[in-house]
Design brief:
The protein is an alpha/beta fold. The chain has 3 domains: 92 residues, Rossmann fold, CATH 3.40.50; 165 residues, Rossmann fold (3-Layer(aba) Sandwich); 62 residues, Alpha-Beta Plaits (2-Layer Sandwich). Helix 1 packs parallel to helix 4, helix 4 packs antiparallel against helix 5 and helix 5 runs antiparallel to helix 6. Keywords: Cytoplasm, GTP-binding, Magnesium, Metal-binding, Nucleotide-binding. Belongs to the TRAFAC class OBG-HflX-like GTPase superfamily. HflX GTPase family.
Length: 429
């Protein structure tokens, strides 16, 4: 489709420190990204600048240093820990005589390796095509579709124009398929909303331990590894929460600082699970020295996908890596749980997490004692059994049933609406 140097597994890594805060990236995180992509770093070239250079992103001297390092080390690819413009990529490739990849392209490549489901592969392909469409090179302009003959003189559709048209057609086809997937997900969400089943969505910085916590709670056995973006495809499982009942727990893709916009747009259907969740479990690697910056990065992405207003419970994970850390619940001034300290790997503090989930999701719990006449016992008692809210029951000499129940206010209100006979008529206390 377009001329680019072939990429390989031997890389030169380039990291520039900027005085402008908006351009700041973390070198150790980039090294983890490169490792997650299966690439071997031969040398790390670092430098400092106030602002990016318009031609090479780095200065001309630093660009020549990178080119020399490529020749000396025999590298096959140069990876920048920054977002490059298409022109900067082309200029650097011409100078270095090898493939140049920026941070966005690296993340897209990792996503392409990790995607397993049909939906995940479509989402990654969509993000890749949108990224590639800005980087088509005019290397095939001599291939014109029409030329010569009366009425056909002059240049017709060049190969570059053909490539752009094919890209647009493929993007439209993928969007149509993803629209079908989105409708299926919407149907599932509407069904859960009708049944008033709460949804808990795991969010957090990549490699914070979301999938490990998901497996600990649900025994789902989803892939979990100590690497960035181990999870791409969303997984949903049922869990039981005391005083709440059945809930849905969703494991989602991890976020990262400066997450590419193409990825956010492509994963719109997946991220909708986060937007419409009843509660977000924000999993944080408490052993990471930069956990506060990671929390801010996740909050920025949540704002970008319109999920900033969803109620949140922060889970400080990996306390087994902290000396003297104990599992506990941190509460606000009103006594509402805000943070839970756990270790998903060791299973420490999981009971406290469920306690916090109960307090955040159950809302107002009510207790009633009802006396049910014989003709209503079977129907009403079966509904209470389904909700698992019966504390005590005793049959009276006249055949009626005295029953003590404890359940959320929402469940009581729903039973009131659906039952032809008012439950309040049977309440004794």
């Amino acid at each position: 489709m377009f001329d680019r140097y072939e990429a390989g597994e031997q890389a030169i890594l380039v990291h520039i420190n900027f005085t402008q805060e908006g351009e700041w990236e973390d070198l150790s995180e980039c090294e983890m990204l490169v490792s997650s992509a299966g690439v071997n770093t031969l040398r790390v070239v670092t430098g400092s600048r106030k602002t990016p250079h318009p031609k090479y992103y780095v200065g001309e001297g630093k660009a020549q240093e990178i080119a020399d390092a490529v020749r000396m080390e025999g590298a096959e690819i140069v990876i920048f820990n920054h977002a490059l413009s298409p022109a900067q990529e082309r200029n650097l490739e011409y100078l270095c005589k090898c493939r140049v990849l920026d941070r966005t392209g690296l993340i897209l490549d990792i996503f392409a390796q990790r995607a397993r489901t049909h939906e995940g592969k479509l989402q990654v392909e969509l993000a890749q095509l949108r990224h590639i469409s800005t980087r088509l090179i005019r290397g095939w302009t001599h291939l014109e579709r029409q030329k010569g003959g009366i009425g056909l003189r002059g240049p017709g559709e060049t190969q570059l124009e053909t490539d752009r048209r094919l890209l647009r057609d493929r993007i439209k086809a993928i969007l149509r398929r993803l629209e079908k997937v989105s409708k299926q997900r919407d149907q599932g969400r509407r069904a859960r909303n009708r049944a008033e089943i709460p949804t808990i969505s795991l969010v957090g910085y990549t490699n914070a331990g979301k999938s490990t916590l998901f497996n600990r709670i649900t025994d789902a056995g989803v892939y979990a590894a100590d690497q960035l973006f181990a999870t791409l495809d969303p997984t949903l499982r049922k869990i039981e929460v005391a005083d709440v009942g059945t809930s849905i727990l969703a494991d989602t893709v991890g976020f990262i600082r400066h997450l590419p916009h193409d990825l956010v747009a492509a994963f719109k259907a997946t991220l909708k699970e986060t937007q419409e969740a009843s509660l977000l479990l924000h999993v944080v690697d408490a052993s990471d020295d930069r956990f506060r910056e990671n929390i801010e990065a996740v909050d920025d992405v949540l704002e970008e996908i319109d999920a900033g207003e969803v109620p949140m419970l922060i889970v400080m994970n990996k306390i087994d890596n902290l000396e003297g850390a104990e599992p506990r619940i941190e509460r606000d001034d009103e006594g509402v749980p805000r943070r839970v300290w756990v270790s998903a790997m060791e299973g420490i503090g999981i009971d406290l997490l469920f306690q916090a989930l109960t307090e955040r999701l159950a809302g107002t719990m009510i207790c009633h004692t009802l006396r049910l006449p014989p003709q209503h016992i079977g129907r009403i008692r079966s509904k209470f059994c389904q909700l698992d809210c019966i504390l005590r029951e005793e049959y009276e000499p006249d055949g009626s049933l005295t029953i003590d129940i404890r359940l959320p206010q929402a469940d009581w209100s729903r039973l009131e609406k659906r039952d032809s006979a008012s439950l309040d008529d049977f309440v004794v206390s």
